[in-house]
Amino acid sequence: MNDTYIPHLPIWTNFSNVYLNSHNKTMAAWPYVFRNISDEYDWYYKGEDDGYLIVENLKAFLRNYDPNKPHYFGAWVKPYLDKGYNSGGGYVFSRATLKLLVEAMEKNEHFCPNADYEDIGIGM
Questions:
Q1: 96 closest CA partner among 72, 121, 69, 59
Q2: Which UniProt keywords apply (predicted)?
Q3: Do the Cβ atoms of 109 and 28 come closer than 8 Å?
Q4: Is there a contact between 94 and 71 (Cβ–Cβ < 8 Å)?
Q5: Using CB atoms within 10 A of its CB, is residue 70 exposed (0-12), middle (13-18) or buried (19+)?
Q6: For residue range 92-116, what is the model confidence (pLDDT) as tens digits?
Q7: CA atoms lying within 13 Å on the CB side of residue 109
Q8: What is the pLDDT of residues 20-32, one digit of tens each?
Q9: For residue 123, what is the enclosing H or E element?
């Protein structure tokens, strides 16, 4: 395993490592990602440590979509919000969606309200 490098960035250091900080960590991460690496990638996946992603399947699915148009994909559930939200296995943003999200967050600090569960906060 030492010959495999997984790129990563420690973008937050001011949060304790507990599950209920997931929302705050994620909301701090998206502006950083947008400002620092959004021109390098087309799609952004947010998942949890107890989920699995088959990258080849995701790539095959995304092949038919334009990352320069707003797209938000995931397993759609509706128990807490009438409009629903993506939960469980994570979600995927296109580059255009990331831009819209961060611009909205910068204009309105309450755009993605602090929810106990990050996936619900993004869905709001």
A1: 69
A2: Membrane, Signal-anchor, Transmembrane, Transmembrane helix
A3: no
A4: yes
A5: middle
A6: 999 999 999 899 888 876 666 555 5
A7: 1
A8: 667 777 888 888 8
A9: helix 118-123
